[in-house]
Amino acid sequence: MRTIGILGGMSWESTQSYYQALNQGINKALGGFHSAQIVMISVDFAEIETLQQQGDWQTAGQLLASASKRIEKAGAECLLLATNTMHNVAPAVESAIQIPFLHIADATGEKCQRDGVTRVGLIGTRFTMEQAFYKARLKERFGIDVVIPNEQERAEVHQIIFDELCHGLIHDASRARYLDIITSLHQQGAQAVILGCTEIALLVEQHHTQIPLYDTTALHASKAVEWALGN
């Protein structure tokens, strides 16, 4: 089994989900007392969130690149950046390390391809929904068209993430609003909807809707488990 590196803390609420999914995945595959071999650094999200709001992606990239090198030095054999939004600085992270970088959008795009999905909805932070780094990768690498919510809906999705989910707050009214937005994306032709923020799966799960949902945290962790086991 190879050792998985995790760069987390963005937020720690969803990093917990990664840790659980990785260990559950390894144990399901190997049984007994087996668990994942993990090296993890969890950053202080307050610093990262400030840089996000300031639009200072260069400094954020430098911080995460530095943390990634520490993870590699500690013995990790691949790296997971446990956040969708901060894949905006994935090139800075990748260029700082020698080990494989498992991109979250690739894990998602591969799932879309397996399911024959060519048009998908995307909800996440406003950075992920509005900037090109995620949508363009899905289009260029996998031929997938991406539909995003309208401006008001994007603001609501973003606010719920930062004001509630990153603080571990789960509200039924927010879930209902997300489900309305998911339905709207489906009505615009999305065959499935990507939960493109690692916190969203804490609020919305597949049993809440018949519209196919892609939990990026689960997909990313599953890809890492396959890699760790050499599959």
What's the structural blueprint in terms of helices and strands?
Blueprint: E1 4-8, H1 12-30, E2 38-42, H2 45-54, H3 57-73, E3 78-81, H4 90-96, H5 104-114, E4 119-123, H6 126-130, H7 132-142, E5 145-147, H8 151-163, H9 172-187, E6 192-195, E7 213-215, H10 216-228
Parallel strand pairs: 1-2, 1-3, 4-5, 4-6, 6-7
Helix pairs in contact: 1-10, 3-4, 5-7, 5-10, 8-9
Order of helices and strands: EHEHHEHHEHHEHHEEH
As laid out across the biggest beta sheet, the strand order is 5-4-6-7
DSSP strand (E) fraction? 5-15%
Which value, in Å, is the CA radius of gyration? Answer: 17 Å
Mean pLDDT across all amino acids: 96
**Helicity, as a percent range:** 40-55%
How many strands? 7
Distance between the termini: 11 Å
**What is the makeup of the main sheet?**
4 strands, parallel
